[in-house]
Amino acid sequence: MPRIKEQKHMYEEERLEYTKEDVRFGTPEVVAKYRAERLAKLLKVSLKNPGSKIQCNCLIEIGCSIGFQTFLFAEAFKYVIAVEIDKRKIEIAIKNAAVLGLKNIDFVLGDALDKETIEQIKERIREKKLKVDAVFLDPERAESEQERILGTLKPDINKFISAYNRFTGNIAIELPPYIKSEKLSKLPEHELEYISVDNNLNRLTVYFGNLKKADVSLVVLPEGKKIVKDVSGKKLIAKSTGFTEGHTYFYEINPALLVADVLEEALVQSKVDVTEVKAFEYNKKKYLLSNRLLDEELFVRYNILAVAEPDEESIKAILAKARASKVILHGNIKQDEYFDLKHKFEKGLRGNKALHIFMFDKCVVCEKP
User: Fold this and answer.
1) Contacts for 8-13: CB closer than 8 Å, 24+ residues apart
2) 259 vs 2, 9, 27, 314, CA distance in Å?
3) Are 309 and 318 in contact (CB under 8 A)?
4) CB within 8 A of 199, min separation 6: which ones?
């Protein structure tokens, strides 16, 4: 069986069939690979050795779409039963699996909660004498909602858990990453694992049964760093009402740290004394100030060059002295005013640097390393 993870990138495989929309809404390969590895490791199997013949027995995947997550699961399990309600998607998944030479996937077209679909899954298990080690669900959801809730997901999450617990209690479900954790409080005991990709919140997976290893965790990809929430108590970061001067560095915070509520844990894990960091909020966005270098996998660093009153001439003088050629503006700036203001600041500049200006009560001129 070919090793999918040895390919340059799954989406770059010219022989595979997919649309731009499939890629847009599909699971990024780095996430799909991580999930397969996590499930395998938790079930006492390692994918680190490509030559290893040890695999889990069987995984049931619900909502396989065109198969990009499925193909990575096929690396970790002897057998995958992949269910999809959309006929177009499952037909593409079948074609792509054939192109890749994957023969250990059985595709089922149907509604996951339909009795006939469940009976087909049972039949496959009986025929091949399989033991189901895990179930994974990627439910359908609206492209956008004012507020993410469980009630709009398909299939119904509680009904799904009840129906598929008969196969195994080891269930993993992908949920919208910005759904509020309090809306999940009535679910059976679980772990919330947030996934960050390239400094942005990307996915949320909920693990049940033996797959649960913490209450809340955050995984940073592609690096693979894991941060576990400390529920026993935290050392709180000092907070200010706004930007304060006297610091060397200014940081934007990876949104995943805030949603997972593991900001303090991330700093402690990076061996940073939280008393050396100050947090502030402006226009509903949080930032950090420090004289310490912080982990750039988690925080976007800016070197503070100057702080000025929101006066055009003062800012232009700072930009000229710093040899700027263009500026990137941040803050509560109306879209129709952004380029006019940008043009005013850039007019007459003769330098060769791109500098950032954060428009708080005062203007903070920064350079991004």
Assistant:
1) 10/68, 10/71, 11/68, 13/99, 13/100
2) 38, 29, 20, 37
3) no
4) 254, 297, 298, 300
**DSSP 8-class letter at 146:** S
Burial classification of residue 209, based on how many CB atoms lie within 10 Å of its CB (0-12 exposed, 13-18 middle, 19 or more buried): middle
What pLDDT score does 12 carry? 58
Tokens encoding 35: 């999930």
Domains of the chain with CATH codes: 20-228 (3.40.50.150), 238-367 (3.30.2130)
Q: For the chain, percent helix, then strand, then coil, each to nearest 5?
A: 30, 30, 40
Residue type, 129: K
Instruction: State the Cα–Cα distance between residues 207 and 135, nearest whole angstrom.
Output: 10
In whole angstroms, give the CA distance from residue 276 to residue 295. 14
Tell which residue, 83, 182, 170, has the closest CA to residue 131. Answer: 170
Rounded-to-integer distance, Cα 23 and Cα 202, Å: 14
Give the pLDDT of residue 325: 96
Length of the chain: 369
Q: What's the first-to-final CA gap in the chain, in angstroms? A: 44
Contact between residue 191 and residue 38 where contact means Cβ atoms under 8 Å apart: no
What backbone phi and psi angles, to 5 degrees, belong to 128?
A: -100, 5
3-state class (DSSP) for residue 249: strand
User: Sign of the C-alpha dihedral, residues 138, 142, 147, 152?
Assistant: negative
pLDDT of residue 339: 94
Distance CA 208, CA 352 (A): 54
Question: Residue 227 is encoded by which pair of tokens?
Answer: 């941060």
Q: Count CB neighbours of 360 within 10 A.
A: 18
Q: What is the pTM of this model?
A: 0.88
State the 10-residue block means of pLDDT for the chain, 369 residues long: 41 73 85 92 56 71 96 92 97 94 96 98 95 95 81 94 97 95 94 95 96 95 93 76 91 95 91 90 92 92 95 94 96 91 95 96 94
